[in-house]
Protein: Putative glucose-6-phosphate 1-epimerase
Organism: Massilia soli
Amino acid sequence: MTAISMTDFGALPAVRIEGPDGAVAIVTLYGAHLVSWVTSDGQERIFCSAKSSLDGSRAIRGGVPVIFPQFAARGNGMRHGFARVSTWRLGDNGDGFAEFTLTQAELAPGVAAAWPHAFSLTLRVEVLLDELRFVMAVRNAGTAPFPFSAALHSYFMIDRLAYTAIDGVQEGEMLITDKYDHIYFGVERSIVLRSGMGALRLDQQGFTDAVVWNPGAADSAALADMEGDEYQHFVCIEPALIEPVTLEAGATWTGRHQINVVYA
Ligand SMILES: O=P(O)(O)OC[C@H]1O[C@@H](O)[C@H](O)[C@@H](O)[C@@H]1O
């Protein structure tokens, strides 16, 4: 059985997507936020903080936040955009996949007034054999162009930072021991994340850049929604479109991200 069903994650309504090999992903309607991906070997691959709000009062800390239409504080709007704090609608769905949609109509009135563009955002989440696949599409449904940035701010679970290496973002293997926050522009290769929990291969199309982030001990202690040494147990590797792209009226931009389990 590879169907989808409704569930809860904390106080948030969510969609459970089961793949052909028994892998399961959970996506909350709040943010179209993937909060869990358990592969067929029973291993959780995605980090979510034990202190995260799970009631829609603020963005979820962990999972795969959808960043749109602004990256971080690079603009005058809401930090990392409004998509992660808006409630999306469940759209087309079937065996092993679900699509989520957000348009101007779903936005809180203040948010819609601050970003007055007719848009349609779709996120397709598909659970395949040892693979998680995202397709994010932004459509300009209005009559004038608008600029946007986008990212899938993926928090990957690792056992410890010290046992973790990232390949494919720079020359040679990259190691993180504490705070790290860097944008790699023009990523063209597969990225491989290796940790004591095995390896994941990350591929992206449409997203031109990748952000690698970990808050380290000091910044993590300052985050109200992260506890203790949790920063040791994730690394964010985010397919991103950092420099705003102008989308013409009627046009659609598509970004894709595939995460594959790599067996040695
Ligand atoms: O705390 P937020 O808004 O979820 O942002 C987390 C991090 O997101 C990353 O994408 C940024 O590069 C970091 O600078 C930022 O701290």
